[in-house]
């Protein structure tokens, strides 16, 4: 029988790191391992619910204030999620993000802290699961442990809803506010996500699981309330492409106590297109980054706790010397996830 216990969900990132991206998939206590940042290929069992919480704490590298008078300091991305198994091969998700963004800014020869917090754009996702076992098949209602070692795949897609506030401005230095779309908690327009995953628990070494995930996020131009020269500002965040892989190793297990501990090693590649303001591509935006993630995942009965550190290993930003506060310029990201299935 398939013993499904946990779902690994959600991640965050973007140029300027101003939004979160969901990673999806459920795993069993005795089945394949589940990543932190990479989406796995397991679906939620039919009729089951998933509750999920994730924290992505981002600490930015700081530089000389003579070079950067205003600098991003830290972000906290909280994401609350709920999922439902509509069919064994079809899972639905709702994600509710809450962001806190802090930067240090110059004023009158000194500095002050500006923080923007609030609920961000809601996200709806659907996951379609299938497998390969002498041909492609929909994920069945039940699978043996041997069946779980087959190649499993998902196609997933989703849309964000513009429920966050894109129009909150810092007015400490200018009464009319300062236009900083990357410090907002909403995009103002929906965004669309499409992705694909593949997962394989190795038959000859079943403690090891390989996971592959790729996705594309499309953003659209939004007209803000902020005006300049009598015209309202228009801004579009750059589209994103991601390519992720994970090795999950079952380090410890005690089936009598329903306890399991996995070690995780992930590689996350991300390419961000340039942002556009009033239709013009922006400097100091966009580029490519390769992240490394090291972490653990602890399973106990129907619950899972994951934790890890994510750091940039390589980057090629478009104007790296000007991109303090852009993705790839983090000191580190601390990731914590908690999920339960019922």
Features:
0% helix, 342 residues, mainly beta, 4-stranded antiparallel sheet, 12-stranded antiparallel barrel
Describe it:
The protein is 0% helix and 59% strand. With 342 residues, it is mostly beta strands. The strands form four sheets. Strands 5-6-7-9-11-12-13-16-17-20-21-22 form a twelve-stranded antiparallel beta barrel. A hairpin with a 3-residue loop joins strand 9 (122-132) and strand 10.
Rg (CA only): 21 Å
Helix count equals: 0
Query: Major β-sheet, in short?
Result: 12 strands, antiparallel, barrel
SSE-based structural type? mainly beta
Say how many strands there are: 22
Mean pLDDT: 90
Task: Report low-confidence residues grouped into runs of 5 or more.
Answer: 1-23
Query: Can you list the strand order of the major beta sheet?
Result: 5-6-7-9-11-12-13-16-17-20-21-22
Distance between the first and last residues' Cα? 17 Å
User: Could you estimate the helical fraction of the residues in percent?
Assistant: under 10%
Molecular shape: elongated
The H-and-E topology, N to C, reads as EEEEEEEEEEEEEEEEEEEEEE
Short description:
The protein has 342 residues and is mainly β.
Helix-strand blueprint:
Blueprint: E1 4-7, E2 11-12, E3 20-21, E4 26-28, E5 49-60, E6 71-87, E7 90-107, E8 110-119, E9 122-132, E10 136-138, E11 151-161, E12 192-201, E13 208-218, E14 222-228, E15 231-236, E16 240-254, E17 259-272, E18 276-277, E19 280-281, E20 287-300, E21 303-317, E22 330-341
Antiparallel strand pairs: 1-4, 2-3, 5-6, 5-22, 6-7, 7-8, 7-9, 9-10, 9-11, 11-12, 12-13, 13-16, 14-15, 15-18, 16-17, 17-20, 18-19, 20-21, 21-22
């Amino acid at each position: 029988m398939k013993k499904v216990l946990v779902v690994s969900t959600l991640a965050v990132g973007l140029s300027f790191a101003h939004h979160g991206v969901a990673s999806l998939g459920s795993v069993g206590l005795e089945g394949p391992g589940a990543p932190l940042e990479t989406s796995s290929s397991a679906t939620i069992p039919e009729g089951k619910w998933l509750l999920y919480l994730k924290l992505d704490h981002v600490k930015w590298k700081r530089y000389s204030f003579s070079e950067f008078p205003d600098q991003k300091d830290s972000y906290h991305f909280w994401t609350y999620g709920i999922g439902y198994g509509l069919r064994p091969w079809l899972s639905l998700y709702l994600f509710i993000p809450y962001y806190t963004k802090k930067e240090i800014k110059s004023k009158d020869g000194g500095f002050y802290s500006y923080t923007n917090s609030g609920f961000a754009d809601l996200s709806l996702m659907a996951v379609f699961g299938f497998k390969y076992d002498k041909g492609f098949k929909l994920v069945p209602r039940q699978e043996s442990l041997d069946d779980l070692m087959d190649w499993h795949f998902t196609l997933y897609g989703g849309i964000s809803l513009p429920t966050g506030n894109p129009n909150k401005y810092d007015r400490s230095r200018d009464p009319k506010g300062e236009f900083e779309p990357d410090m907002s908690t909403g995009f103002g327009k929906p965004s669309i996500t499409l992705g694909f995953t593949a997962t394989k628990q190795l038959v000859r070494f079943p403690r090891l699981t390989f996971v592959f995930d790729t996705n594309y996020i499309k953003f659209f131009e939004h007209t803000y309330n902020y005006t300049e020269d009598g015209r309202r500002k228009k801004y579009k965040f750059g589209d994103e492409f991601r390519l992720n892989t994970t090795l999950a190793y079952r380090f410890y297990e005690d089936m009598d106590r329903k306890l399991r501990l996995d070690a995780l090693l992930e590689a996350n590649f991300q390419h961000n297109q340039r942002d556009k303001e009033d239709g013009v591509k922006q400097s100091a935006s966009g580029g490519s980054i390769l992240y490394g993630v090291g972490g653990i995942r602890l399973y106990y009965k129907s619950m899972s706790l994951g934790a890890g550190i994510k750091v940039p290993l390589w980057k090629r930003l478009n104007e790296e010397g000007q991109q303090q506060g852009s993705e790839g310029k983090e000191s580190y990201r601390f990731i914590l996830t908690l999920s339960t299935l019922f």
